[in-house]
User: What shape does this take?
Amino acid sequence: MEPYFTLNNNVKIPSVGFGTWQTPDGDAALNAIKTAVQNGYRHIDTAAIYANEKGVGMGIKACGIERKELFVTSKVWNTERGYESTLKAFEKSLKDLQLDYLDLYLIHWPAAAHQFDNWQQINSDTWRAMEKLYTEGKIRAIGVSNFLEHHLEPLLAKAKVSPAVNQIEYHPGCMQQNCVQFCADHNILVQGWSPLGRGKVLDHKMLQEIAQKYHKTVAQLCIRWALQNDVLPLPKSSTPHRIRENFDIFDFEISASDIASINQLEDLGRSGLHPDTIEF
Ligand code: NDP
Assistant: This one.
């Protein structure tokens, strides 16, 4: 298996990203990033709303790896949607991260019909700002997060640059197959958030039995399973031994029949966050 995916603009993206939601700012973020990079991760996922971009940026500076070897993602938050405010939000993220470019910038959640009559226009305006930043070379790739097919269709109809990525919830028992298929059909890479179901799927008996066959933990099974389904997983941990464990997934392969069994699991421990019902 390649250690990276290739995006629709030919940019290479390391195939396991390091999640940082709920990683506290400051030393905690700095140490998490250093530990992750020391253990092989080259891809870091943060967002303005995680309120840890300063600590993540300190970790990037302190990790001992050249900036160009790392792949850094951030996201524009819901209160900053629209053309001008997205441009400003991007500059703030860049400043907080102490970087002069981002590898990937995402619209964190779509504006949606339950909150805005003009939701399509809002998403298009936000996207125009992303396209401007991309065209100016300040971001190597642009994408979206939590967009379902009906959010993507109107965006694609007006976009000059097609999204390279859609970051959605993805773990055993939550495969969002229609959205994943739509993305595959449109050459959009799916990144999986909460690839461990925030820990909720780790006690599942069948997953434990399959993991044991490969002498791996359920967390490692979940991460490898996402990759074998062509989804880029973003496991988060602040615990050094788990950070290491979650990257130790390149030395085994799950059989086609075990992949099929995991794909058939019932709905397991989803977050409940849905773009058409969220209140934020
Ligand atoms: P994960 O599925 O990655 O689970 C993280 C939780 O599992 C933490 O409590 C962590 O604990 C624990 N954990 C991690 N590794 C192990 C292990 N090997 N064994 C046991 N427990 C483990 O959930 P997240 O919700 O954090 O999602 C991952 C990333 O996806 C986020 O950090 C963020 O970057 C992104 N994300 C994006 C969203 C979006 O809207 N675009 C929404 C949600 C997440 P501990 O840290 O204490 O080790």
Q: What stands out?
A: The CA atoms of residues 124 and 155 lie 6 Å apart. Residues 19-21, 45, 108, 145-146, 167, 193-199, 202, 217, 219, 234-239, 242, 245-246 surround NDP (CB under 6 Å). The chain is about 40% helix and 15% strand. The chain has a mean pLDDT of 97.
